[in-house]
Amino acid sequence: xxxxxxxxxxxxxxxxxxxxxxxxxxxxINVWExxxxxxxxxxxxxxxxxxPGMGGHCIPIDPFYLSWKAKEYNTEAKFIELAGEVNRKMTxxxxxxxxxxxxxxxxxxKDSKIMIVGVAYKKDIDDMRESxxxxxxxxxxxxxxxxxxxxxxxxTVKLLKNTELTKDNIEKQDAIVxxxxxxxxxxxxxxxxxxxxxxxxxxxxTVKNPKATIIRA
Length: 217
Prior knowledge:
By secondary structure, the chain is of the alpha/beta class. The protein has two domains: 2-88, N-(1-d-carboxylethyl)-l-norvaline Dehydrogenase, domain 2; 90-216, Rossmann fold (3-Layer(aba) Sandwich), CATH 3.40.50. Helix content is 44%, strand content 12%. The protein has eight helices and seven strands; from the N terminus they run αααααβαβββαβαββ. The protein has helices spanning 2-27, 31-38, 62-72, 78-88, 90-104, 132-142, 167-172, 187-193, and strands at 113-117, 146-150, 156-157, 160-161, 175-178, 196-199, 213-216. The strands form two sheets. Strands 2-1-5-6-7 form a five-stranded parallel beta sheet, with helices on one face. Strands 3-4 form a two-stranded antiparallel sheet. The mean pLDDT is 94.
């Protein structure tokens, strides 16, 4: 029960900040700046950060075991189920955000070349269990995009091989989408040679003088 509480705590707080991120994007507010400012409060606030969805073997699964168990005892876990729904829909929201960003360049998702950067569910590991990047790739492919990926820890995804992050490969893409912010990725190279970067992790905030158009998502 302790483990379930811990993972449910994280699930619900991540859902809250994901929902706020969507709201802030519509309002033209930088949610990352809001979180940083709120974090200056010395008590009563713990920062959680938005992302493209939930991944891993614990947070996306454990709370729903608790919800299932609750039904056996004639009670409900509505808060948990709602949080799960918000987090699941983030992959769709990010896909729509990519489509809108391409549309601003008079480019449709269909036949666009899109590179997903980071397919592991969190940074600096090779674990892809429940990774939201995989679902985003599926959604983009369903819409007709030509999708490739780069991840220094993952050699293959289904039938796709890891694409080397080079100047030529970057320049070929209509958009690059950062879904997992691995430490050992050359973000400066991306910022210099990409046309469009959709950043779901706020990783490009520290890159100075980027030539690419950067969209926070």
